[in-house]
Amino acid sequence: MTKDMQPYCDYLNQISALFQDNDASWKIQFITMGREAPKHHPTQTDCQPDIVAIRTYPGAMISADLLSWSHLEATGQVVNGQAAAEAETQAGTCGACHLQARPDLVSTVGILVGESDFKLFRTGACGILHTPSIKWDTPEARRLLYAWVWRLYHPDTDPSITIKMNKHNSNSRIEIKKRPTFTIRSGSETYEDLLVLHAGRSIGRRTIILARQGTAHHSIDSDSDTDSSNPEVNNCNLNDSSSGVFNSSIVIKEQYLDSSRIFIEGPILKKIHSSGLFPGVVECINHEKVRHGDRAVSMSCKETDQDGVSSAKSRYKTRIVLKDQGTRLADVRTVRTFLKGIYDALEITRVLFREHKILHRDISPNNVLIRGGPEPYRGDIPDYLNDMCFADYLLKPSSGDDNPDPESDCRQRLTTSVFLIDFDCSENQGPDSHVLGDPCVRMGTPTFMARMVRSSVYPYGLYSIPPMPDLDSRVLPRYKKALGNRLEVFPAKKKEFVEIPAKSKMKPEDFRHLLRYDAESVFWFAMWWCIQAQPAEKSIAEEKIPHSLWVNLAGESGSRNALFVKDFPSYPFLHSSYARLVTLLDEMREHLQGDLDYSKDEDKKNPEYVHEALQRVLLKFLVENDKEEFMDLQMADQPRSVAQAPLGSRMY
């Protein structure tokens, strides 16, 4: 196969030679990949281009088997023994993968070559574009190929971020870096030796997360390299002395946002922390709309709808410098840590809305992180945080050794390991929102969306909503001390029967995301996590997840309410080692039955009602099961597998 590809590379290299400057430090060369795939892609893709364009330096070469995705300047696919449509799809896919590895490029280019013709590709946040098939022997073929290769020497870049592909070794000779790094200028700061930690879909927001090599060890291969052998020198570049921010926690997030977007993550994070540090929310050091001179770095294209009407579509680049790093709460290995984590996530979201009228709107596994240990509250404590308290404080046994100093006690209450990230789906419902039009009202990750966010149809039927749970006597003293006002605002009453007529719907114009929808997302997160949990001990037998249950939870069949809220699975669906968690999930779902729009209880009109109910259920379970072995039983790294669908069953 390589032999068939080489003539294309030879021809493109002849064109490339026409643009080479004798004084240039590098040139573009086309090579075949053979059976090798580029390394170090942030999504671990197995996509494999047939041909790639790379920079070569005098006296320095890198072989195809060592190439990283970020070394590439272009990708190419050869129609060779496969259908043209399949090869075209592969060419587009390679271009999209290339874009994920090159945040310095606004768009990437690619080529699809065949025996008689070729197509040229351009991929950016607005989509994948390509030319019609162009015959090799037509007059325009050479002109187009010249222009395409010229673009490789003059790429469409964001000038505030540069890539470094080479370095000088101990003998002052140029070496190609095993993995190129990026340098970003943001505001008055320069951040060096950055690697791509995460990349979202290329088309759309095109989210890319960058961090220093040493801070991203959990997800970046160890064979990458940086320029400085002195870690103290590297540390200086990532230190913001004015805010006490150190490189070990710097993360840079870049996105291409729709030009019609109303709520933007950077300003929302600045508002959240405007009156002092808000516990449990990622901190924003700087945010900006990235510019190239006097214009925004952007990507534009035209779209034609099904009626043939064309419209312009554009996305502009934004950048946020964030302080905080952690791992996903979903990846913790004990029930105790996870349950305390989701309690804290509920506390963060309720106080965030109460004080700033900001809703996260995408509570899901990728957006709830946990640090290696609790972080004490820093700085002056705003008065509004007097009614905020996290699980560790409440679950600490009361004793005579409790710190009598009010300020120290308050800092202990505000200590948590959990923090929320990814506020680009969030909504500011405060009076300062400056809404210019209707926001995208239905946001989130489908599996974890509240039912009324995924559908405008109310869950009809007769429901029995239990009273607000009582607190266990072992946690009540500390709860009274820290959050006594909540006991008065949310007293325990009788259960309430709520009836929702069939075919009840909410009008689209009446929909607004509510705080309790974020609470329901926490429930779906807990359900998802508990179902997948299995012990690490290999001597314990495997127990697969029932197929129909998983399909109804993670799919889009619309059966979540019937299976998990209105009713509850009557058969074992958790791993038997964690069977006690069924009680917790059952009690949580009881408080989500029906919809509180149909409740006549005034207490339930309080936006924080569902949060309070779920948090009390969690506290009760944590206290009652404190000494149980399953609470600290180590979980396996891999989730439970899903059983195969029975023959003849419907597949969604």
From TrEMBL:
- Which Pfam families does this UniProt record tie to the protein? Pkinase_fungal
Q: Where is the Fungal-type protein kinase domain?
A: 249-530
Name its species. Serendipita vermifera MAFF 305830
Q: What is this protein called?
A: Fungal-type protein kinase domain-containing protein
A Gene Ontology molecular function term for this protein is: protein kinase activity
